[in-house]
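Student: I would love a firmer grasp of how sequence relates to backbone shape in proteins. Thank you; the sequence and its tokens follow:
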Amino acid sequence: MGWISRQFTTRVIVLIPVAIALNIVLGYTVQTVLKLPIYLDSIGTILVGVLAGPLAGALTGVLTNLIWQYAPVIGGGTIGPFAITAGVIGFLAGIWGYLGVFRPRPASGTQLLVSAAVAAGLVILVVIPLINNPIYLDPNQGGFVSWAVPAAIAIAVIVAVAVAGFTYIRRDLAGLWVAVAGIVTGVIAALVSAPISAIVFGGVTGSGTDLIVAALRQGGADVLAASLGQGFFSDPIDKLITSFVVFLILVSLSPRFLARFPLGDRLTRPASGFMPNMDRPS
């Protein structure tokens, strides 16, 4: 019980509603207003998970979707059943927090250059399926605009430069490991959400990602395969961007402030390796 109670300190309880509001505002804007093929509705969830732990992160994710489903004005739609996925994302964020993935990892020389290059390469790797897919090359398939491919390339270049540049300029390998954690989270989120989308909604959820599902269906994929394919297109890059945004928020905060949260010590102590000791530091 002590492990559970440590994740829900007064500061965490105050942070959770703020994180939920951030999730809903950004998610609603990106998915419903702009209808982009990404989500950006997990920044608050991952932030709470990394700062407090798996259960706090999971609770933030679940509450976000449930409140969003039933909130006045923006309520309704299809977001509620995906509370399961949101909970998994928050739980994984807490695991990354315990592993110290977001903590500083000072480096220099060849190690730093290689890490920056690999970080940029990972961004390009997860965007290649979007760029090379015929769904985007033919605007008549799925209703994509003619500038979809240039936009995807632009996003990939900007994110790649940001991740690699941050890693190199700050001489910090954490940027690379945050990118890896984001991609892993995205893959798992896609695997969890695909059956929900296919079984509950037939692959149509009312967001910008519906265009991908529709195009894959036109190509002969069944509902589950199309939903899973859409998830693998959207989730890895979405969670990579989201995780890196959280990382930028964390590095902008003072170590003294971060130390007030349950996992604060795992965000402020420099680490030389990827896998720190899982025992709580004294």
Summary: The first helix runs from residue 2 to 6. Residues 273-282 have pLDDT under 50 and may be disordered. Residues 182 and 239 are 5 Å apart (CA to CA). DSSP finds 13 helices and no strands in the chain.
